[in-house]
Amino acid sequence: MVDFQFDKNWSLQPIKGDTGKAYMGINDEAEKIFIKRNSSPFIAALSLEGIAPKLIWTKRTGNGDVLTAQEWLDGYLLSPQDVGKRLDVIHIMQHLHQSDSLKNMLYRVGGVERQAFDFLSAYAQDLPLELKRNQYLMRVFRYLEDHLPDAVTVQACHGDPIHHNWLLSEQGRLYLVDWDATMLADPAADLGTILGRYVSYDDWPSWLTSYGLKEPGESIQRIYWYSGMDFLQRIKTCYLQQNFKQMNQEILLLKRLFIY
């Protein structure tokens, strides 16, 4: 059920997801658009750069919500196997992380800056007792606590480049979608999610060379740290959502990387 005011010429159909803010809009001519409520204002810059689907318009509703409309693209979301193999995933990450214009725009729209300690603190805050009692998870946490990366110059980061946020259009163009978690951080945060989940550890150096790092070995330890941090945070989120099946899957993925 749509719970906000909108143009009467468009009917809205909620799109399944964890935010409850995305809709497919259809007008009388059967045209489709992707509509999102209170999306990141960063979308406009990403659209111009070709990283996100084309922005069509932005409107404010009667109740104060801001709606963004982007072109509707038929296609499919990448599988976990796809993400680790595609060169265009690498190129989009490289473009995002090396763009000074995107970084400056994200600062202008109020982007949040986060260093490694902020991630560690967010996980530890209000950590459920059951997760504190899990000896394996606490060993991983202690490792991360003892190997905290040094602060770095932050860049624009997606914040959640998981496989279902990669959309491949029918025309073969790849886009990164769902920018609600965007932030200014060490690019290793994004890379840790991708490499930790979708790329064999032995293949990390070649992936990072394609990404443009001349000395990838110097970055692997930081990416390893952020990968573990990403898994812990997802495990915590799954626990709080009582999604224990997914939580156990995340723990199994973490154990492939952190073997204790």
Automatic annotation (TrEMBL):
Domain spans labelled Aminoglycoside phosphotransferase: 45-211
Domain of life: Bacteria
InterPro entries: Aminoglycoside_PTrfase, CcrZ_PhaseVar_Mediator, Kinase-like_dom_sf
Gene3D superfamilies registered for this protein in UniProt: 3.90.1200.10
SUPFAM superfamilies from the UniProt entry: Protein kinase-like (PK-like) (SSF56112)
Name under which the protein is recorded: Phosphotransferase family protein
Organism: Vagococcus allomyrinae
